[in-house]
Structures are given as C-alpha cells and as structure tokens.
Amino acid sequence: MENKLADKAVEHFMSGELPEKIVFGIINRYLRFVIPIKSKDKAEWPLDPEWETFIGANRNDIKLFMKPEPVTINKEMVWLRKQVAPTLKMIQNLDSALGTDQLQEMINEAELSDHHKALLNDILEDNQKGDYADESK
C-alpha cells in the first residue's frame, strides 16, 4: 500500500504538477487548523486565516485512495511463502525437537473465513474445468 501511495504521488508529479502543490495538497487533505465557533459543528468551523495563507488558499486536494486489488490464490501463496512459512518452519522444527504437535493442532483448529471458502471453491471449480494452473512457484 505504501508503494502505491508513493506511485500515486509520482504520477501527479509526472503529470506536470509542481512538487509544492503535491505536498500541500496532501497536507491540506489530512490536516486543518480552524477557528472554533461554539454555535457551529466542528466540520463547519472556518480555516484559520494564517493556516489558509500558509497552505495556500484554493489549493486542490490530491486524493491518494486506491481501489483494493482482488485477492487471488497466487497473492495468498506469495504472502504465505514470504511472511508465514519461516514461522511455520520454526514451529515444525520445535515440534520435532520437543515431540509436540502444536503446528498440526493449530491447523486443525483454524476456521476458514467466507473469503477463504469462496476462494477455495473457485479454485476447485476451475481445477475441475482444467483452468487452474499454479502460478505461485
């Protein structure tokens, strides 16, 4: 996600926007100094004039929101390989050394989320059709 936000900022820069405009657009989006007025809601409080001068009146907001990418089995496998497998291997070695079975117990007790069940069903259906190829390797 962090890289995507940086990519979005670079995209704005490459489109000809000045770095100053990008930086102040980001600041203006997430930080405001206002003048409290008891008779109004906080959302309606006016910007402090000094802040408005600093930030630059009438600057456009830059929205850095990204659409979430759909999760695929390949992404799950990459995550598992990079983030989880080393810990699983450590616990497996520990089980072997201590004669315990903690790893298998954890797997047996795990409950699949609706997301995992749907992904599993999609893969099994594709496999029956011959459409699934393991691209995670």
Task: Explain the overall architecture.
With 137 residues, this protein is mostly helical. The chain starts with a helix and ends in an 8-residue tail after the last helix. Helix content is 60%, strand content 0%. The protein has 6 helices and no strands. The chain is elongated, with a radius of gyration of 25 Å. The model has no long low-confidence stretch (mean pLDDT 81). The longest helix is centred in the middle third of the chain and has 26 residues, at 73-98.
Summarize, please:
The chain has 137 residues and is mostly helical.
Key attributes of the depicted protein:
137 residues; mainly alpha; 60% helix
Number of helices: 6
Uncertain segments: none
Global geometry:
elongated
What proportion of the residues form beta strands (DSSP E)?
under 5%
Structural class: mainly alpha
SSE layout:
Blueprint: H1 2-14, H2 19-30, H3 49-55, H4 73-98, H5 102-109, H6 114-129
